[in-house]
Automatic annotation (TrEMBL):
The modification 4-aspartylphosphate is found at D55. The keyword Disulfide bond does not apply. This is Response regulator transcription factor. InterPro entries: CheY-like_superfamily, NreC/VraR/RcsB-like_REC, Sig_transdc_resp-reg_C-effctor, Sig_transdc_resp-reg_receiver, Tscrpt_reg_LuxR_C, WalR-like. Keywords: DNA-binding, Phosphoprotein, Transcription, Transcription regulation. Residues 149-214 form the HTH luxR-type domain. SMART domains: HTH_LUXR, REC. Pfam families: GerE, Response_reg. Residues 4-121 form the Response regulatory domain.
Length: 222
């Protein structure tokens, strides 16, 4: 199946480079390019891409606001992969809250960018490995969890809660399997059920739900 991609960046050379790289892949089609968030929203609604490769900082409408508008639109909803120049960028946390499926650094290797688009298109979340745990730590400090665990989590079994805690700690499926002494495929099944029960799009949104529902709190919380 061909992955339709919309490339959004305010720098023409960067945008053209990303578009050329992705268009050269046998399983991808670049359905459009946009130089700001407003164009991204318009093209996203018109051409219905599977994945939007979205720059964070742009004129007219930034990537976060564009992401919010795209993901709140009726009808087709794409997955958004944010691109940022900075290792830790406060805008990225806002993008995660807005519903983005993850982010990559602009200096990522071409193979990582191509792989990232495929991962997001497949419904998985993607966070640059060098910043995954720091992103979660930052997010956990930014959220003031409720005193009691939200009833929203009542739909989860005890084992599913255990898995969600590990996901919120930034562990991979293989790491969770090792900690809980279960098979990696079993972890994948648990994660899939967690996403379905909580009605969230991917692992990133599951992490948000875990903190906002009070299941997990920052290690530095009183």
């Amino acid at each position: 199946m061909t992955i339709k991609v919309l490339v959004v960046d305010d720098q023409a050379m960067v945008r053209a480079g990303f578009a050329a790289l992705l268009a050269a892949q046998p399983d991808m089609e670049v359905v459009g390019e946009a130089e700001d968030g407003a164009q991204a929203v318009a093209l996203g609604r018109e051409r219905e891409p599977d994945v939007v490769l979205m720059d964070v900082r742009m004129p007219v409408l930034n990537g976060i606001e564009a992401t919010k508008q795209l993901l709140s639109s009726p009808g087709h909803v794409p997955r958004v992969l944010m691109l940022t120049t900075f290792d830790i960028d406060d805008y990225v946390y806002e993008a995660i809250r807005a519903g983005a499926s993850g982010f990559l650094l602009k200096d990522a290797l071409p193979a990582d960018l191509v792989s990232g688009v495929r991962v997001v298109a497949a419904g998985e979340a993607l966070l640059a490995p060098t910043v995954t745990r720091r992103m979660i730590e930052h997010f956990s400090r930014a959220v003031a969890p409720p005193r009691r665990t939200s009833p929203r989590l009542d739909v989860l079994t005890e084992r599913e809660r255990e898995v969600l805690v590990r996901v919120a700690q930034g562990l991979s499926n293989s790491e969770i399997a090792e900690v809980l002494f279960i098979a990696e495929q079993t972890v994948k099944s648990h994660v899939s059920r967690i996403l379905g029960k909580l009605e969230v799009r991917d692992r990133v949104q599951a992490v948000v739900a875990a903190y906002e529902s009070g299941l997990v709190s920052s290690p530095n919380s009183p």
